[in-house]
Amino acid sequence: MNQRTAVDRARVLATPAAYKDEQNLHASLSEVRNETPVVRVEVPRYKPFWAVLRHRDVMTVERSHKVFTNWPRPVLMTAESDEMQAAAGVRTLIHMDGEQHRVIRAIATNWFRPKAMRAMELRIEELARKYVDKLAAAGGECDFVSEVAVNYPLYVIMSLLGVPESDFPLMLRLTQELVGSDDDEFKRSTPADETMNALLEMFEYFRVLTASRRENPTDDMASEIANARIDGEPLSDIDTMSYYTIIATAGHDTTSSCISGGLRALIDHPDQHRLLIEDFDLLPQTVEEMIRWVTPVKAFMRTAAEDTELAGVPIGAGDSLLLSYASANRDDEVFEDPFAFDVRRTPNNHVAFGFGVHFCMGAGLARMEMKKFFAELLPRLKSIELTGEPELTATTFVGGLKHLPIRYEMSH
């Protein structure tokens, strides 16, 4: 494959619709990864970037957080959206670097430590049982995504934040509009300013919640964020709202995608489903393989803080890089038979949660939610099959299944 072909193929990374066809997407990424693993991508409406496709190169960038910074472009968006977010002052954890990132991240860290996870374990088990019971009561046929997968992790993260249950439907709509802004089914309308309205609506919701928690603190994460102080000063309004937003979106859509994509993988690979049922001790490995298989965060961006090079390619100060987790998690240099779904895969050094200082602080919670859900579901599942074509979201950032029509038989 020549350089021009590689450049053309790499454009799928900036094509939201390409992520709806995983087979073609991965075929394109594999060809480019094997031939030109760091390639310059220029497409209309987006600022140029270097695509980083190999696992080892992604890890090099992740480890070199002083050379490759999150600010100012942590996510691939159109140039128009880049400018609008910058003008709005959006500054979440994924926008931060260095000491600022460390201090702000620490505000919520304790809520995701093992001790806190153990305290939540019974609650998550209850919620897993509730949603598996709901599946059992649905009459043997449903859209698994809309009935179960989007609601269970939403319930968990909103309970952790302290959002009242009556507001869960609003939070579901807003999170889907924010991370699904490239998908015709979820976006408000075509103009980027309409997508920004979803963010502003979420900000306004959390502004009211912050005022409430500052006046009457409670034992939830919202109170922790609302009353946090850095050097004796409360967080600015924009930093407070941004914090809630990243927790709400990152704690919901990624886990939802892994649960629905994980179930589809078991349906598509009945031999692996049988292996798991015959040896349920494989559940932790299965969950890791589901996470690798789905890779719900497709990519993050970095910016070179100085002139450097990567895989022998000169990178100029100020250049943007796209770390393709979707590509890295199918890299045959790291994963034996990477296009096989293997519940016994070990080791499984996927990068679905990132790596280093920006490693996802909710990784332990996501793993627990998945383990508890499948531990509740699979022993009760007598049979399951697809009743239609699964549909994936159009995205360049976070995504997975948006529809998974299934027919099943369960014990009550």
UniProtKB/TrEMBL annotation:
SUPFAM superfamilies: Cytochrome P450. Transmembrane segments: none annotated. Its cofactor is heme. InterPro entries: Cyt_P450 (IPR001128), Cyt_P450_B (IPR002397), Cyt_P450_CS (IPR017972), Cyt_P450_sf (IPR036396). Keywords: Heme, Iron, Metal-binding, Monooxygenase, Oxidoreductase. Pfam families: p450 (PF00067). It comes from the Bacteria. Belongs to the cytochrome P450 family. This is Cytochrome P450.
